[in-house]
Amino acid sequence: MNLKYKIIGFNIKEFGINIHEMKKELPFDKLSWDDNDIKIAQLELLISQNPNDNDLILQEAQHYLDQDITPEKIKNLISMLPAHAKHTFHAFKPFRKRSVSQFIAENINNQWVIRNIEIPRSIGFTQQADHPLDLRQLARRFPSMDRAISDSPILKNLIRHFVEILCECEPQRNLTKIGVTCHQMSLLIDNTSHSVSNSPEGLHQDGSDYIVSALVVDKHNIEGGTSQLYCTEKEDFIKSHTLEPGEGLFHVDRNSTIWHKVTPIKLKDPLIGTGYRNILGFDFNYIS
To answer: Which InterPro entries match (predicted)?
Structure first.
């Protein structure tokens, strides 16, 4: 464990968890498409094409993300796009499927107890904006994780181990309660795309105290997907690793010098036609 940078590479075998059992207990095949990706890509295109209207676009961006009916001001900007840009605008398609669940980890009698929290449909998830035009500051709404998965003993065992690692990294805090968000994500690619990325925003921080930026559960017919950690103190990538199933990265995030990204994935064998990378991501935030 590198205590200076608080970065831990792990394999779930270290926790006594079998990857094949994990795949059975945490299936990815019923996840819903994340349509937020389409609208955010469209908004970014509008921003690039209309630099003088950025304030207007930002004012309407949340409405565009939330509503089925396009706000009039956004509709007008779309109508004024040049033909090639308009074609690109309407050609965006989803590339991720996902669900989300929240938990509270509480230390009771020197043992960490993990319990589920119901997420109201109205709750939106935001991330820390790295610059004024960073659309991750918008509230995105994701489908709730299937209850059978959020109740999974394997998932709660994972969370317990991560919380214990966090406490080893922060012994001076004497933490007793930690909020946990789990994202279940499937990144998919086919012959219609050259590449797709799970961090289209590039190098970033998520805005939580600690994160598991990725725990790979399964992948098929892809190359790429290399996790990269950058330290602003050293002005260099300090870790680069292509995670295999069962492997993950746990590290400090908010108010730290550590930033992260993952390289895009491409099809390994185009003749097969499809590929995927299934991961779990976790956010950990101090409560008390």
So the answer is: 2OG-Fe_dioxygenase
